[in-house]
Write a structure and sequence with these properties.
mainly alpha
Length: about 280
């Protein structure tokens, strides 16, 4: 059982929970203008890790047929036979249950909305079959994280947290477009849709850069709406520099460094964003 769980965590790249968790924690800090209580922090982490685990495992299940055909993905645990479909389904169900349980422990509104959130997270896996806007849907999945954290701690909504969620959505959509450039030929063969497949890699990379510029503008708006100071602004400057570096790594004629741009740089962005914004939010506490 432990070996199966370890294989599953490797399959869904569990360590990349770092992409969403810092933004969820930022939403939590903004909600209470300080640190949540330990029980709140525990259940927030359970919810976020459970949500990502469910979404990623279900994505592997939904894409099993395509992963088995794609040279880039055919060695993943499910198509390679290292993990059974039955176990993956069970792991997804348990992960979904953890999200609902965490939402129940946190806030009545969060509990009521948890099925909607899970429907969006799981539904994303099928969007590439019918729309090139699947990148934006994935962005919305992660963009829900700070909004969900805010709701879980306050039971309401504010414009600034919705703008933060939109910024996260644009950031994720932008780097997912870069990642999708690797599979243009395969997507065309299999009838799958993506922005690179529909409009070509050069146009897709330009669209990705535009989304990331819009993300920075929205984050600047959030900083002003929440009256954050120089540390948050310094964090945005650093994030902008990392985004520029990410786009410099990938050229229409050379996609060899996509993984470095996708995994390493975006991990640094999320952590750096959280550290600087958390420091700014907490400076008065």
């Amino acid at each position: 059982m432990l070996a199966k769980i370890r294989t599953t965590l490797e399959m869904i790249k569990f360590e990349h929970s770092v992409f969403a968790l810092p933004f969820a924690l930022t939403g939590a800090l903004l909600a209470v203008r300080g640190w949540p209580t330990l029980p709140q922090l525990f259940w927030l982490i359970v919810a976020m890790v459970g949500a990502r685990s469910a979404a990623m495992t279900f994505n592997r299940i939904a894409d099993l047929e395509f992963d088995a055909l794609n040279p880039r993905t055919k060695m993943r645990a499910l198509p390679a036979g290292e993990l059974s479909l039955r176990f993956a389904v069970g792991f997804t169900v348990v992960s979904c249950a953890l999200v609902v349980l965490a939402a129940y422990e946190l806030d009545p509104l969060a509990f009521k909305l948890s099925p909607v959130a899970m429907a969006v997270l799981l539904g994303y896996s099928y969007t590439k079959r019918f729309t090139w806007l699947s990148h934006l849907v994935l962005g919305i999945c992660l963009g829900m994280s700070p909004v969900a954290a805010w709701i879980a701690l306050r039971g309401d909504l504010r414009a600034s947290i919705l703008v933060l969620g939109a910024a996260v959505a644009l950031w994720v959509a932008g780097f997912d477009i870069i990642y999708a450039c690797q599979d243009v030929d395969f997507d065309r063969e299999q009838g799958l849709d993506s922005l690179p497949r529909r409009y070509g890699i050069p146009a897709a990379l330009c669209a990705s850069a535009a989304l990331h510029l819009a993300m920075l503008a929205l984050l600047l708006g959030v900083a002003r709406m929440e009256h954050l100071g120089w540390m948050a602004l310094a964090g945005l400057v650093a994030v902008a520099a990392l985004l520029a570096y990410e786009h410099a790594l990938v050229k229409p004629s050379d996609l060899s460094r996509v993984n470095a741009a996708f995994f390493a740089v975006n991990g640094y962005i999320s952590v750096l964003f959280f550290v600087t914004w958390a420091a700014d939010i907490l400076r008065g506490h």
